[in-house]
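Query form — protein ABC transporter substrate-binding protein

QUESTION: What is the three-dimensional structure of this chain?
INPUT:
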Amino acid sequence: MRRIALTLLLILSFESVAAGTASLSISCGALGVELSLCQQGVDAWSSKTGIDVNIVATPNSATERFALYQQILASRSADIDIFQIDVVWPGTLAPHLVDLSQYIPEDITAQHFSTLITNNTVDGALVAMPWFTVAGVLYYRKDLLHKYGESPPQTWQQLTDTAARIQEAERLAGNLRMYGFVFQAKGYEGLTCDALEWVDSFGGGTLVSSDGEVTINNPKAVQALEMASRWIGNIAPQGVLNYDEEQSRGVFQSGNAVFMRNWPYAWALGNAEDSPVRGKIGVIALPRGGEHGHHSGVLGGWQLAVSKYSKHPRQAADLVRYLTSYPEQKRRALIGSYNPTISVLYQDAEVLAAAPFFGTLYASFQNAVARPSRITGDKYARVSAEFYYAVHGVLGGKTTAAKALAQLQRKLERLSRGGQW
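ANSWER: The structure tokens for ABC transporter substrate-binding protein are given below.
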């Protein structure tokens, strides 16, 4: 990773010198159409201001991206002015980030979901502006459910049964590559999101309670992971243990999965003109853990932050203001189905026509379960890693859910020092 970071910095320095006029750089994700949308927004701002901007693509894996950012910021490099950061990173990265309230007035920040502004405010400083928000959702093949007389599942058991039935029938009909369910089971932050949704939907808590108590070792959490472990090699391919968002989408969009857990961005891509499943996709809230469980989707999303080491913080903050503005968020919602962080856009007729599920799942986006990053602070990355390592071991058949969670409980308790994070 250090070699990657150093190579990136050398490339950026070379481009700045070679271009001569480049004065800002921004890191953008490259998941789906994310990079092209970022490029379009940046180009529009550049044409208005006359300021050139270099765009740096970063790893799709949030875990790899976080490690890269930490190295770049720790070096106090001025080569990247604006960072695209995950919703769980503000607390950890805050010491390296500019207070944007110096440059962006309160009447603008007030347009965004207050929960996200609160999340991005650390010790009174607004260290990032919300760009788009997400919550995990369930995609399904409308045509296949209709073909076999099934309804969209409301519980995980219903999903399991429906997936198994349709998978078997489709294979008998000739599609030997068909699977019932794909999701993110690679050992990375995406698995933390998926597994937390399973656990929370059963009523098993969120790893760490709001008062700092480690709560993961409980019967409902064990039940959730036991359920998920039974999917591997049955309704989910063995290879799902190495799937991230894009690999899951690739299988589903090629027509080889009945259900998929993913983020809202996959809607626009799944309905693109060249998509084999265009017009055949439905989206609903993720299933409940059982009759007494509840729907649960993990809160995700990305923010834009300005580095304290930027040589042009005012211009960088202005670019952040532009990219997170109402018109730009509407454009991104229409083209890429990225969930706005400005609440009134969920009442916009054009946005709802482009992404109909925005309206029906609005409550899911508002009430999504948060990962315990605020309470665990700069230890969150370690907490998450310990969790996804444990879950990956269970899914891979290396250990049982009961043993893995008991061991995880002890590790997190030692890390928390008795709840004092």
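ADDITIONAL NOTE: The two ends are 27 Å apart (CA to CA).
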